[in-house]
Amino acid sequence: MKRCLAALLALCALLSLCACGAAAPETDGGTFSLDILDTGKSDCIIVCMDGVTVVNDAADEDDFDSICAALERRGVQRIDYLVLSHYDKDHIGSAAALVRAYPVGQILGPDYEEDSMYLTLLKRAAEERNTPFLRLTENYTVKTENGSFTLDPPDIDYGDDNNNSLVTTVTWRETSFLLLGDAKKNRLNEFLDAALDSYELIKLPHHGDSNKPLLKLIAQTTPRYAAATVSPAEEIEDKLLAALAAAGTEVFRTDGGTVSAEWTGKGFTIIQTK
After folding, report:
1. Phi-psi group of 185: left, alpha or beta (phi > 0 → left; psi -120 to 50 → alpha; rest → beta)
2. pTM
């Protein structure tokens, strides 16, 4: 009996040593996707990274079904952060409906007021669902296992919705994406000093409009890709296209389909799907 017990203990010890010496399976370091939706002249960007879902802007009121379909394609059942760059209707139109349709962990937006039916509806939905709505006056960063996103609010209230835009920087595995809301000249001038050295992709502000600070930002950061949220009737301004070409930036228009950045396990791929 003692011999059998000794043999059994020896076998367990051997198996333990083998397990300790075995190489751990390789992983791809987490999951990441960023979808700039095809919603015409409006903005909605869905970021999924390391199990955290961020919806950056909520497009127009009639884009709700498209947003829900995009969330379903990504298997999203909960929105951890609903980020609103500013309170124009083409950025918050579906926000109240999203808060009612999904569990939302937190709403984040800039600290200014607007006489807007859509903002009123959002506040009401947030109160009904007990969803915190934080108005930002300083940078706000959320970290995930492999990345982070940082919201940069304006230093002052410019008295203009677009210039009051939050700027969102999404960083994952040392690669960064810049979402500019509808930031115009004043806001972009303010942001230039905070910009990173480079970006994989910039979501262009205000549907392809151009201004000097934006041209400077592109020359300064030389993004690999840029996306403009436009309808078929709109044109990206020539000066902006020229600056993007000079920076070697490939340009996408969302009227050609949703623009997606995905982590493949080895690097990023940028695709457009109708």
Report:
1. alpha
2. 0.89
